[in-house]
Amino acid sequence: MFRLLAKLHLERYFNAKFILGIDLIISFVASLFALAFLQLIITPSKLFGEFSLFWLLGTIVACSIWFAAFKTYHTVIRHSTLREVGRFTGAIFGKELSLALLVILFNIGNLSHKLIIAISIIDGFISLGLLILIRVSMIVAYDLVKAKLKEHRKRQNVLIYGTSDKSVAQVTRLQDSSHYHVLGYLTYGQRLKNHSIANCKVYYFETEASINFLKERFDIDAVLFSNTDEAKSEQERLIRYCIDNDVKVLFAPPIDEVIDGKIMKQSIREIKIEDLLGRPEIKISMNEIIANFQGKTIMVTGGAGSIGSELCRQLATFGIKELVLFDNAETPMHNIRLELEERFPDLKFTPVIGDVRQPARLDFAFRKFKPQVVFHAAAYKHVPLMEENPCEAVFVNVAGSRNVADKCIEYGVEKMVMISTDKAVNPTNIMGCTKRLAEIYVQALGLAIEQGTVKGKTKFVTTRFGNVLGSNGSVIPRFREQISKGGPITVTHPDITRFFMTIPEACRLVMEAATMTSGNQIFVFDMGESVKIADLAKRMIELAGLTLDEDIKIEYTGLRPGEKLYEEVLSNAENTEATDHDRIRVAKVREYNYDDAVKVADELESLARAVEIPTMVRLMKRTVPEFKSKNSQYEEYDKEIENEK
Q1: What is the helix (H) or strand (E) element at residue 463, kind and residue range?
Q2: 44-77 pLDDT tens trace
Q3: pTM
Q4: Positions of E strands within 144-274
Q5: Torsion of Cα atoms, 70 then 72 then 78 then 80, to 10°
Q6: What residues form DSSP beta bridges with 522?
Q7: Which of 38, 64, 140, 408 has the fewest CB atoms found within 10 Å of its own CB?
């Protein structure tokens, strides 16, 4: 009904002829009432029928003339004022006067002058009263309908997918919502046809035509999913049907999350590509993790970055003693500080502006706060940029990681968790190799402690990630920005694939690895199936309600320096060992002597400071023999090293 009313465009004027027609009908009805009243008080004569016919026909003619003269039907009804009453009074007076004079002049009905005057007065009052009443009624009706339309536009009619406990809970959650009106549930197939749950009807769909019918019949604006698993299961069916029929697809995050006893309401939002790409939620033992960190001082390097900031959010819920954020990015650090202050008012935390390349600044932070656990997330991560700036990659990823690890030993940190990447496996670029070199140093240091050649108690653990959905500078925010500008979306190669995980997923892996480690292990994650980036771009175009090649195009720009067409599978049986967790494995890697690792780290840092790029890259390749450059200027060094053998 509301869609039909909306199509009337109530903000526009009614047609003047339409208004005139209404006024003439009202005047005709008023004259009928007046004549009926007259017949109640006098005995009708044979001539009275002739008079009535003349009076009714004359009413139509006279009203047409006088309404036109006073332009009563040229006003905007919703803006009517007392001036309109004056116009009606003048028009009705003119009508009654002209009809009375004609009746007297031609002696129609042979009625007395007093009777003619009486019927004119009665007719005039009834006509004027009805016209004013109808005008007021139209104004009131207009306001009511417009208010309803406004309320309807403000509140979206939604169907909640499924009938699970989470789905039913959404009804209670949204019953007082000013934004959403729940009409019922939506399921596939007719199994629950004509059923009701929590006073809401269960609707069903089987084909795209079903969704179109529900939209047109019940004014459906959106379908709401209560969890990502259900959305993933329907991404090739219901979600496509909704997109093709201009029905929004919404996602409701968990109803609440408890933070220091405070319930934080989450906002319903439109579903994102990240919701459809992630795998089933990792099952971890939260009690063990909380016990592992509760009451401790924890430092997160790179604490303002994508992974680092999410680590801070999750750690803030564990009852830790103090949180130290260490990062050199001023604005992101300011933003995460404001967020933590707002969301976790009881959390004791300190943001420290500093750079892992500066041992003295790190020493200050370790000396002042004495962290018991350190999460090392600070790194340079963009492959093409690091291919062009290899010295900076070595400074941050190799020397910076070494500085953090050494301070952990010096200040007796219990555990250091380093964030690595799948690009460290058989690296084809500078960035991946620097992360592998960082792994080598940290693991060699941990082994030296175990062997007693280095004094210390710190346990070192490394976690390797795939690409993180939605992280700063990653492909999804880039595609989203390109779509908002109308395209084109740029993809390097039609066959390029990547493994993906969500930011919270990555951080849960870090937490679990930090809890289960015995030290000196590199944990990898079962990344599931790889995703073709071109398909990802097409899916994002669809979710935006656009059509590929019509509204927006995809352009292929060619592989960038150091970029692989396919990433390495992290968790196959040949290069990993199983753990107690079915989604986490331990990488089989070559162990390095600590003295050799120190020597390489010293030499690489010295060469980076001197910007001796060729010598530095050659040393990287000799230290990490599996480092073979792809689509890069450094491929020539691979040939040199091969010839040396």
Answers
A1: strand 459-465
A2: 554 457 777 888 787 788 777 777 776 766 565 5
A3: 0.67
A4: 156-161, 180-188, 196-197, 200-205, 222-225, 248-251, 256-259, 262-265, 269-270
A5: 40
A6: 462
A7: 140
